[in-house]
Amino acid sequence: MVPRSCYRVEAAVMIRWLGHISSTGLMLRLACSTALLFTLRMCVGLSWFQVLPSIFIFFLGSGGWKSLHVFSKTIYRDLHAASVLLRVKLNVKKHLRERNTVPKLFAKSVKKYGDKTALIFEGTGEKWSFKELDEYSNRVANLLLQRGFTEGDVIALFMENRSQYVGLWLGMAKIGVEAALINFNLRLEALVHCVNISNAKAVVFGSELTDAMCEVHSSMGKTVKLLCSGEWDPKRVPEGTEHLEPLLETTSTNQPRQPDRSFTDRLFYIYTSGTTGMPKAAIVVHSRYYRMAALVYYGFRMKSEDVLYDCLPLYHSAGNIVGVGQCLIHGMTVVIRKKFSASKFWDDCIKYNCTIVQYIGEICRYLLNQPKKDTEHQHKVRMALGNGLRQSIWEEFTSRFNVPQIAEFYGATECNCSLGNFDNKTGACGFNSRILPYVYPIRLVKVNEETMELIRGPDGVCIPCGPGEPGQLVGRIIQNDPLRRFDGYVNQSATNKKIAHDVFKKGDSAYLSGDVLVMDDYGYMYFRDRTGDTFRWKGENVSTTEVEGTLSRLLDMKDVVVYGVEVPGAEGKAGMAAIADPEHTTDLVKFSRDLEKALPPYARPVFLRFLPEVNKTGTFKFQKTDMRREGFDPNVVSDKLYFLDCTKGQYVELNVELHRSIVSGKQKL
Ligand SMILES: *[C@@H]1O[C@H](CO)[C@@H](O)[C@H](O)[C@H]1NC(C)=O
Ligand SMILES: *[C@@H]1O[C@H](CO)[C@@H](O)[C@H](O)[C@H]1NC(C)=O
Ligand SMILES: *[C@@H]1O[C@H](CO)[C@@H](O)[C@H](O)[C@H]1NC(C)=O
Ligand SMILES: *[C@@H]1O[C@H](CO)[C@@H](O)[C@H](O)[C@H]1NC(C)=O
Ligand SMILES: *[C@@H]1O[C@H](CO)[C@@H](O)[C@H](O)[C@H]1NC(C)=O
Ligand SMILES: *[C@@H]1O[C@H](CO)[C@@H](O)[C@H](O)[C@H]1NC(C)=O
Ligand SMILES: *[C@@H]1O[C@H](CO)[C@@H](O)[C@H](O)[C@H]1NC(C)=O
Ligand SMILES: *[C@@H]1O[C@H](CO)[C@@H](O)[C@H](O)[C@H]1NC(C)=O
């Protein structure tokens, strides 16, 4: 007969082994230990007194102590997240069943909140109650119906002035017309491209953008109708333009007949710069709008009595969904500011009793750069909501401005792999459970950070990252589940580029976020960088391919390589253009003038580097790795360097002294 102690040794080996194969799977390990316990007890006939302590000791010995620690530290966080996910999921199911849409959900808010202030426009001081917003959007809907627009048509919205913005797209949504929300910084080709790819039948533009419209009018389709909102000057607008406001005034405010749209139909389009090329139109369906707004609302424990300060652009999901969505769906008062102002920020918060402020990374740094004043901690703001707050300024931001909670989240408009830092963890942009990591189908997988290529194991499946290993964030796509599907872009081939196969297991497909994150032992995720070329500057993604194309055109098709360089203390990366100019023929004054017309401010290169030739690979691809590493230091780079002085709007020579003042943060970028 085999002595019993042998079984014990075997059990120890088995548990240890199980511990190894599932160093994260605490649940699995607990289950295995329990199963072993029963097996030992029943089959081997050990007494409880022998089994329990040995199992416990083996459990701890196999790394169980650490798991228990992780378990106790994260269980409340995970339970909260699970309840939020479940709640949103059930709500979405309900809305699907009831064939609700964002306008229908808004109608419920109107019923409930009626005369409560829905939107406040800082600047003009206008206040719109839920009723007024409803009536305005009814007018818009009725006017468009009269004009023959029907369900499924697209109308581009190109406005900087805000007060009508929400009412306009909401009115369109009421009759199933889809708005294409166009970045008001766009000009020329990019603007035409955006209108074209959306197949818009009309453009509603703000009078402040009349010049931009005139520039592109001739290259737009002849059948595209133009409507102008704001100050009317018939001599300046393109021919055939109509003035919106007088038309609206004479239109009925009655609820229009709503078409039978479902929760999974298209609501509007938001443009992303994506990873390469021109902006892409990402589809936002009603359920996605709801989900993004609701996850933030429940996840960060907001209330309808909160007042939200939203100074982000409304053509982005952060401003228009995460911010305005709280008003339309959850009945919150939202203060909209046309343009972010660092000096007025906290005064506005006090003026409107704001309790939540929205940010993007840049905003926080601009606020910290302001001189100290009393109002900056006399407000009632309890939470700052946004993404891109750097770890390096995180604590300074919370302590100086007396903001108790940072609600940092991560999520691309078009992606279904959102993360949220629900429990105020310093520096994190979200987390995934370490106890049951498979419940939420996201994962970090190993990637070549420069080429964006996924690194695959011998079986062809992607390799998941452990704690401390940076990897690209991917989200599994379950297409037949409306909650989990990826709605993609208008351009089908662009959609395919963002999808990889065999990621979690053989035969599946997953969305590629294009961002590199790193996870700690507790499952908290920290943003690291974007994979590939696109870099972020002033809160926007700058597509190097696009900028390269434009610069090359302005410079008589010279070879131009664009890349981002790190500037100490600045968020994102500053654009740098290396220009091959062996004969020194570039006219910098003309170049900076042309640049102002051709590119939005954030895409204009901050640094220029003139060199005789740029290195190319055998397949005629530019090599930027070396140049990116050399950066903009004149001590390292022997080529001529220039710096875009934004106060002068001119490129000036970058010498050692200027370099020092940029690095020390004295020189404004
Ligand atoms: C923005 O709209 C307000 C009122 O709607 C108007 O007073 C103001 O002049 C507009 N600004 C621009 C730049 O058009
Ligand atoms: C936009 O569409 C119009 C008509 O369909 C076409 O003439 C024009 O070339 C297009 N422009 C771009 C930039 O694709
Ligand atoms: C802000 O709160 C104070 C006191 O609670 C109130 O008197 C004031 O009217 C509020 N301001 C706004 C804009 O709601
Ligand atoms: C959030 O964390 C900061 C420090 O990291 C702390 O001062 C603050 O009290 C926390 N807020 C909440 C609501 O727990
Ligand atoms: C930039 O890219 C990130 C990650 O893909 C995305 O979350 C964000 O919405 C993009 N921003 C713009 C302005 O396209
Ligand atoms: C998509 O949305 C669903 C619904 O909440 C969520 O459970 C899932 O994790 C999300 N992500 C992916 C990648 O499918
Ligand atoms: C669609 O995307 C592909 C790849 O990104 C691009 O080559 C093509 O020009 C795009 N088509 C349109 C109409 O934008
Ligand atoms: C181009 O390649 C050569 C040879 O590999 C190298 O010495 C040089 O530094 C490279 N130039 C740049 C600008 O990277």
TrEMBL record:
<dbReference type="GO" id="GO:0044539">
    <property type="term" value="P:long-chain fatty acid import into cell"/>
</dbReference>
<keyword id="KW-0436">Ligase</keyword>
<protein>
    <recommendedName>
        <fullName>Arachidonate--CoA ligase</fullName>
        <ecNumber>6.2.1.15</ecNumber>
        <ecNumber>6.2.1.3</ecNumber>
    </recommendedName>
</protein>
<dbReference type="InterPro" id="IPR042099">
    <property type="entry name" value="ANL_N_sf"/>
</dbReference>
<keyword id="KW-0812">Transmembrane</keyword>
<keyword id="KW-0472">Membrane</keyword>
<dbReference type="GO" id="GO:0047676">
    <property type="term" value="F:arachidonate-CoA ligase activity"/>
</dbReference>
<feature type="transmembrane region" description="Helical">
    <location>
        <begin position="45"/>
        <end position="65"/>
    </location>
</feature>
<dbReference type="GO" id="GO:0005324">
    <property type="term" value="F:long-chain fatty acid transmembrane transporter activity"/>
</dbReference>
<dbReference type="InterPro" id="IPR045851">
    <property type="entry name" value="AMP-bd_C_sf"/>
</dbReference>
<dbReference type="Pfam" id="PF00501">
    <property type="entry name" value="AMP-binding"/>
</dbReference>
<keyword id="KW-0813">Transport</keyword>
<dbReference type="GO" id="GO:0005789">
    <property type="term" value="C:endoplasmic reticulum membrane"/>
</dbReference>
<dbReference type="Pfam" id="PF13193">
    <property type="entry name" value="AMP-binding_C"/>
</dbReference>
<keyword id="KW-0276">Fatty acid metabolism</keyword>
<dbReference type="InterPro" id="IPR022272">
    <property type="entry name" value="Lipocalin_CS"/>
</dbReference>
<dbReference type="GO" id="GO:0000166">
    <property type="term" value="F:nucleotide binding"/>
</dbReference>
<dbReference type="GO" id="GO:0001579">
    <property type="term" value="P:medium-chain fatty acid transport"/>
</dbReference>
<keyword id="KW-0443">Lipid metabolism</keyword>
<dbReference type="InterPro" id="IPR020845">
    <property type="entry name" value="AMP-binding_CS"/>
</dbReference>
<feature type="domain" description="AMP-dependent synthetase/ligase">
    <location>
        <begin position="106"/>
        <end position="473"/>
    </location>
</feature>
<dbReference type="GO" id="GO:0090434">
    <property type="term" value="F:oleoyl-CoA ligase activity"/>
</dbReference>
<keyword id="KW-0445">Lipid transport</keyword>
<dbReference type="GO" id="GO:0005886">
    <property type="term" value="C:plasma membrane"/>
</dbReference>
<dbReference type="InterPro" id="IPR025110">
    <property type="entry name" value="AMP-bd_C"/>
</dbReference>
<comment type="similarity">
    <text>Belongs to the ATP-dependent AMP-binding enzyme family.</text>
</comment>
<keyword id="KW-0547">Nucleotide-binding</keyword>
<dbReference type="InterPro" id="IPR000873">
    <property type="entry name" value="AMP-dep_synth/lig_dom"/>
</dbReference>
<feature type="domain" description="AMP-binding enzyme C-terminal">
    <location>
        <begin position="546"/>
        <end position="621"/>
    </location>
</feature>
<keyword id="KW-1133">Transmembrane helix</keyword>
